[in-house]
Write a structure and sequence with these properties.
heterodimer, A: about 425 residues, alpha/beta, abc type-2 transporter like fold, 2 domains, 17 helices, about 65% helix, B: about 280 residues, Rossmann fold, three-stranded antiparallel sheet, globular, binds adenosine-5'-triphosphate, binds magnesium ion
Chain lengths: ~425, ~280
């Protein structure tokens, strides 16, 4: 194990010290991702300008003055971009089509509740969010609470609304049997004093009390639910960088595959393979060291690109678990491909030739040049022969296609298969003998 | 220490090594002397288990086959072609090769320091190998064979293409290694080196081992007579003799003016010539 790690670290060191290899593995893919992302920014989604506005659909089932005012608040909010929907079903459909990130429903009883807050009524708002947009779900919850609270405050600061609310509440209280008479009397006293104060402002409960206090009185209730649906195949990229970064990864993986496929033939030519062969480590360890180095380099280039994507370019990763799986599987698949090339190519020249002739083309049709999803259907089907295609699909799945674990089964299995076949064929085709 | 039994290796129609048997004794410096293409490197490759012989057997005494893990730990080979990572420094190369032999920590550091000092590269240890001169690279190639402290060291033309300074350093190093009790197999086509360094020499040509023995034995057996050239005013006279000093004494006693006397004692070159009808280097 010590030997395998030593072998891998040595190879990574050599990769970083070889200017051409380091450039094609790390710098070029990054530059490409940034360049393509910049050129096509504005073509997809909200571009690279960060979270920006959250598009939501709003369904107003109450239709009264209070709900309309709440809707107006939503529309006026800079963080939200509102589309009106007639029914909840219509709103949810918009979410599933990825046109909006959430569907907000103002329920039928909203106006009634706003008029009788003191009677224990609750201002209720429901939201159904796209499960792949976790962070935005949180943002929306906050926004809805804030705006609903503002509505409630409105009911207290507008004298007419206030009086109406108190009257309604008094009536409701009168009829209620559930409340203990002493408490009733106390509340009536309070209502009276508020009415006398005319503006009522001074007596209005402060925010904390309004939301939490009054013996379990809960004036506002915002519920946010995740909609269950699969988005595979229907999603659109969230930004041009979400498209260009998988492209960058394709080139990075190509760089790793080429560098390490050539490196084994290179060691054969340089004679260092001979030293490895006479060391007490076994051929398995030599191959494992090479594979580990390639695997680590693949991980490294993907992490680097990903860090840049989520950092300065604000690409969102909805599910880090899926992303991790994709990065690991992709690294495995391309390590296998490297082993295949290394096994088949007897000389450095052959490795380079094979690389240019086959791997480069596979990378180009596999999403390296033109984003896969804008290719014609026929070409998309054909491009499935390329392992790069599956890497691209998986990465896009994790970045913006909203893949959940089940969606990863097919591309994951294909990547695994590419890796395994590469390993098996490559290792069995490997030649060791070389003259001193 | 190392026993080669009837080794045969063919490449297509070419019999690169053709029935070579040698028994190398512990602590000796064994020279394998032969011209280009004689089969020296191929023999070494079989000896360390890099190439499988078509027939014949290799045994490292006490460790069995050269590919067994315990054999590998006692074997150290400096290949004829430099086998180094040019983008790593000398120190990094040695540390890496040392780790392959399970060395780590202070033991590794100690060995790396020792061999760097042995080949005189201590002051350049942190420079990348590609910035080294040919002679320095040769010396490092040798150091890499020694980092794991092998008991049996095989050096394949360690002085090929080096300047006199590096050559002397390498020859001194071989003597040092021998004095440490290591067994050394040394291939070369420089007969002077074999003559200076080796306890025993094997002469190989076209894959066949033509003779084995100490330098003196080989010369006595195959070197022929010494040649005494006596120059007088009227020309030069060549006399072959087993005892050249007697010839010189006689010539002096015969009177007349001696313009010059030269004695050409037989050497390994003569041995090779006698055995093959060709010179060692053409
Ligand atoms: N891998 C190989 N394939 C084909 N022929 C080979 C191979 N290795 C060696 N030979 C041939 O075998 C013969 C012996 O080669 P070898 O390298 O053992 O000679 P050598 O004594 O080391 O020569 P030199 O002094 O030039 O290093 C040569 O004719 C060489 O061409
Ligand atoms: Mg040779």
């Amino acid at each position: 194990m010590n030997a395998i790690v030593a072998l891998a670290l040595k190879d990574l060191k050599l990769l970083l010290r070889d200017r051409a290899n380091a450039f094609f593995t790390f710098v070029f893919p990054l530059a490409l991702a940034v360049f393509f992302g910049y050129v096509f920014s504005g073509m997809y989604g909200s571009g690279g300008e960060g979270v920006g506005q959250l598009p939501i659909a709003v369904v107003d089932l109450s239709g009264g003055p209070e709900s309309r005012a709440f809707l107006a608040d939503l529309q006026a909010d800079a963080a939200l971009e509102v589309t009106l929907a007639a029914t909840q079903a219509e709103g949810e459909a918009l979410v599933k089509k990825k046109k909006v990130g959430a569907c907000v429903v103002i329920p039928e009883g909203f106006d009634e509740a706003a008029g009788a807050l003191f009677a224990g009524k609750t201002l209720e708002v429901r939201a159904y969010v796209d499960p792949t947009r976790g962070a935005e779900g949180g943002l929306l919850t906050g926004k809805l609470n804030e705006l609903a609270f503002r509505r409630m405050q409105g009911a207290f600061t507008d004298p007419a609304a206030m009086r109406k609310s108190l009257d309604n509440s008094r009536a409701a209280l009168d009829q209620s049997d559930a409340i203990d008479p002493a408490q009733k009397a106390l509340l009536f006293d309070m209502f009276d004093s508020i009415t006398k104060a005319q503006g009522g402002l001074a007596a209005a409960p402060d925010g904390a009390n309004a939301q939490g206090g009054f013996n379990g009185w809960k004036p506002i209730q915002v519920t946010v639910e995740k909609l269950e649906f699969t988005t595979a195949g229907r999603a659109m990229p969230t930004s041009s960088y979400a498209v260009s970064f998988p492209q960058g990864v394709v080139w990075g993986l190509l760089g790793c595959v080429m560098a390490f496929a050539v490196s084994l033939a290179g060691e054969r030519a340089a004679g260092t393979l001979l030293r490895l062969t006479v060391a007490p480590i076994g051929k398995g360890a030599i191959l494992a060291g090479k594979a580990l180095a390639c695997f680590l380099a693949c991980l490294l280039v993907q992490c680097l690109l990903l860090l840049l994507a989520i950092g300065p370019f604000k690409v969102r990763v909805p599910d880090w678990g899926v992303m991790l799986l994709v990065v690991v599987l992709t690294s495995f698949a391309f390590t296998g491909l490297m082993m295949l090339l290394a096994g088949l190519a007897r000389t450095e020249g052959a490795a380079q030739g094979l690389g240019r002739a086959v791997v480069l083309i596979l990378a180009m049709i596999g999403g390296g040049t033109i984003p896969l999803f804008i290719l014609p259907a026929g070409v998309q089907t054909f491009s499935k022969v390329s392992p790069f295609t599956w890497a691209t699909i998986s990465l896009e799945g994790a970045l913006w296609r909203g893949y959940a674990w089940p969606d990863m089964i097919l591309p994951g299995a294909v990547l695994l298969a590419f890796g395994l076949v590469g390993f098996v064929v490559g290792v069995s085709a490997m030649r060791w003998s070389s003259s001193t | 220490m190392l026993r080669l039994e009837n080794l045969v290796k063919t490449f297509g129609a070419l019999r690169a090594v053709d029935g070579v048997s040698i028994e190398i004794r512990p602590g000796e410096v064994f020279g394998l002397l032969g011209p280009n293409g004689a089969g020296k490197s191929t023999t070494l490759a079989m000896a360390v288990g890099l190439t499988a012989p078509d027939s014949g057997r290799v045994e490292i005494t006490g460790h069995g086959s050269p590919t067994s893990p315990s054999s590998r730990r006692v074997l150290g080979i400096a290949p004829q072609a430099l086998a180094l990572y040019h983008d790593l420094t000398a120190e990094e190369n040695l540390r890496f090769f040392g780790r392959l032999y399970g060395l780590r920590g202070s033991a590794l550091k100690g060995r790396v320091d020792t061999v760097l000092a042995m080949v005189g590269l201590g002051d350049r240890r942190r420079d990348r190998v590609k910035t080294y001169s040919g002679g320095m690279q040769r010396r490092l190639n040798l150091a890499a064979a020694l980092v794991h402290d092998p008991a049996l060291v095989l050096l394949d033309e360690p002085t090929a293409g080096v300047d006199p300074q590096s050559r002397n350093n390498i020859l001194d190093l071989v003597r040092l290694l021998a004095s440490q009790g290591r067994t050394i197999v040394y291939t070369t086509h420089y007969m002077e080196e074999a003559q200076k360094l080796c306890t025993r020499v094997g002469i190989i040509d076209k894959g066949r081992l033509l003779g084995v023995g100490t330098v003196d034995e080989l010369i006595a057996r195959h070197g022929g007579k010494a040649v005494v050239t006596i120059e007088r005013d009227d020309g030069a006279e060549r006399v072959e003799s087993d005892d050249p000093m007697v010839v010189v004494a006689k010539a002096a006693a015969a009177g007349g003016t001696l313009r010059g006397v030269r004695i050409d004692r037989p050497d390994l070159e003569s041995v090779f010539l006698a055995m093959t009808g060709r010179r060692l280097r053409d």
